[in-house]
Specification:
Layout: H1 2-11, E1 16-21, E2 25-31, E3 37-44, E4 48-50, E5 53-55, H2 58-80, E6 89-94, E7 100-102, H3 121-131, H4 140-149, E8 160-162, H5 164-173, E9 177-179, H6 180-183, E10 189-190, E11 195-196, H7 198-207, H8 217-220, E12 223-225, H9 236-242, E13 258-259, H10 260-267, E14 275-280, E15 284-289, E16 303-306, E17 312-318, H11 323-338, H12 345-355, E18 367-369, E19 386-388, H13 397-407, H14 410-422, E20 429-433, H15 442-451, E21 455-458, H16 464-478, H17 484-492, E22 498-501, H18 505-531
Pfam family, one: FGGY_N
Domain Carbohydrate kinase FGGY N-terminal: 16-238
InterPro entries: ATPase_NBD, FGGY_C, FGGY_Carb_Kinase, FGGY_N
Length: 533
């Protein structure tokens, strides 16, 4: 009976679609009128290091989106026996930050520069000093100003600059707009006006005035929208990008495009003050919705962004999380295959990660660094993954796996110490989501030890950002005058279930011992960057 009702919703065009372009996977999630996921499709992809720049080809963006949607349609057909041709609302999300620059003819001026690049230190430092506000290296304005400092010819021809979510949304709708959460990772936001900070816009224009560019900064940035505002409709041209068969009907309303930080907050019901969430996958970031502004700027450690409805958020971000232990898992898999004992990927991960719970609380002194790319918060600007141990250390599989999980949280802890110890930020709940939490109990236990705070995982958290942006699309058409928090509380999470793990004193003490060693060992990591090309 439930399947028949869902099939009817789909046929009548009442289902809602969210698509998120993550760092390793593009995912499409379809939800019903109760905001429950009913079908999904995906596409795996990877960034590339080209001429020293981490990037994705835009052809792969559209290949991935079309493949994800096609797989979603297959899933709908297989589960419900109907074709997906009409949708009530649509939302686009993607990795925050980065730099996509276009000229007046909509030509891409330079390859997409992603959040992963740590090549804008000079620009970020100068802008942070100018604004008296933390401007991270990942932010779009840092990339733009660094290009200016580098005397790159393309900046003269600049007509539009945006994030990946903004780019996809623009091509689907023709609208150059961006959700406030994603926009807050392009240029500082005034949370009172819900728009770019006018004083800082003027400061930037004065800073670059001598270059005589034919543009002002406000003219090349996307328009800022908050959750619940209409951000345009799917055009006939957009249909063919999303669904090359042309079977999907145009005219679908879209919510403001958002970054993965914003959709993570929505998917974990963490948009209210004194709530927080930790997103842990290829990268890791913790976000705490603030009751008041911080006492000072903590450039390179704490970013200030916003929720999708414009509340101030403190964000600690690390570029690297699960990527390096994924490589170790691949190596262990090769060993098993070489011995004629292959096992499924899920079982391999669960088996080895569970071993971490058996390890010494301080990982036996083992010290890995998961720096596939640089980490601004620890002053490392290139990636050199390392594993270091003393001969006296307790070198076991359990300790090795525990150390891999602990080190994935080392850079993050650097930023969180500022919020908890220097700013005395109080938080009532922290929800976790992402691949780090996939193996039952393990990720939560390690994160709780690192954050010395209970960590909850909602049973829906595995749906991730694609579900989060679908919820924002649902809020657009079903919000009924409610605030975003009211909508999430009443219409989405009223009956949600969560598993919470509180840290033990032993686990906290163990992580603190590991972290003390981690900070001392950064000199070894720096030496590797300096001496290993």
């Amino acid at each position: 009976m439930q399947e028949n009702e869902t099939a009817k919703e789909i046929v009548e065009g009442n289902a809602i679609l969210g698509i998120e372009l993550g760092s390793t996977r593009i995912k499409a999630v379809l939800v019903n009128a109760k905001n429950e996921p009913i079908a999904q499709g995906g596409f795996d992809w990877e960034n590339s290091l080209v001429d020293g720049i981490w990037t994705y080809a835009l052809d792969d963006v559209w290949k991935g989106i079309a493949t994800s949607f096609q797989n979603l349609k297959y899933d709908v057909q297989e589960k419900y026996g109907v074709a997906l041709t009409k949708i009530q609302a649509l939302g686009i999300s993607a990795m925050m930050h980065g730099y996509l620059a276009f000229d007046k003819n909509d030509n891409l001026l330079v390859p997409f520069r992603t959040w992963r690049n740590t090549i804008t230190e000079n620009a970020a430092d100068q802008l942070s000093d100018l604004f008296g506000y933390p401007v991270p290296e990942r932010w779009t304005i840092s990339h733009l100003y660094q290009a200016i400092l580098n005397k790159e010819a393309h900046v003269t021809d600049l007509a539009y600059v945006c994030t990946l979510a903004g780019y996809v949304h623009w091509k689907l709708t023709g609208k150059k707009v961006l959700g406030i959460g994603d926009a807050s990772g392009m240029f500082p936001i005034d949370v009172n006006t819900k728009d770019y900070d006018k004083t800082m816009l003027s400061q930037f224009d004065s800073l670059v005035n001598g270059y005589a560019f034919p543009w002002k900064i406000a003219s090349v940035l996307p328009k800022v929208l908050v959750a619940g505002e209409n951000a345009g409709n799917l055009t006939a041209e957009g249909v063919l990008l999303l669904d090359p068969t042309g079977a999907l009907s145009p005219g679908i309303p879209l919510c403001p495009p958002e970054g993965d930080a914003g959709t993570g907050m929505v998917a974990t019901d963490s948009v209210a003050q004194r709530t927080g969430n930790v997103s842990a996958g290829t990268s890791v970031f913790a976000m705490i919705v603030l009751e008041k502004e911080l006492s000072k700027s903590y450039n390179k450690y704490i970013d200030l962004v916003t929720t999708p409805d414009g509340s101030l958020v403190a964000m600690a971000h690390a570029n690297n999380c699960t990527g390096e232990y994924d490589h170790w898992m691949n190596l262990f898999n090769e060993v098993l295959e070489a011995t004629g004992n292959p096992i499924k990927k899920g079982k391999l991960y669960d088996t080895l990660l569970q071993k971490a719970l058996e390890g010494d609380k301080d990982c036996g002194g083992l010290l890995p660094y998961n720096y596939i790319s640089g980490e601004t918060m620890t002053g490392i600007y290139e990636g050199r993954p390392l594993f270091v141990r003393q001969t006296k250390n307790n070198f076991t599989l359990a300790n090795f796996m525990r150390a891999q999980l602990f080190t994935a949280l080392g850079a993050l802890r650097t930023g969180m110490d500022i919020l908890f110890e220097k700013e005395h930020v109080e938080v009532d709940s922290i929800n976790g989501h992402g691949g780090f939490f996939k193996t039952a109990e393990v990720g939560q236990t390690m994160m709780a030890a690192a954050m010395h705070t209970p960590i909850s995982v909602l049973k829906t958290a595995g749906e991730g950002g694609a579900w989060g942006i679908a919820l924002l699309a649902s809020y657009l058409v079903q919000g009924k005058g409610q605030t975003l928090q009211e909508f999430l509380t009443k219409d989405v999470f009223a009956s949600s279930e969560a598993i919470t793990i509180a840290p033990t004193k032993e686990d906290i003490d163990g992580f603190n011992a590991f972290f003390a060693n981690y900070k001392k060992g950064l000199a070894v990591e720096k030496a590797a960057v300096e001496n290993l090309d």
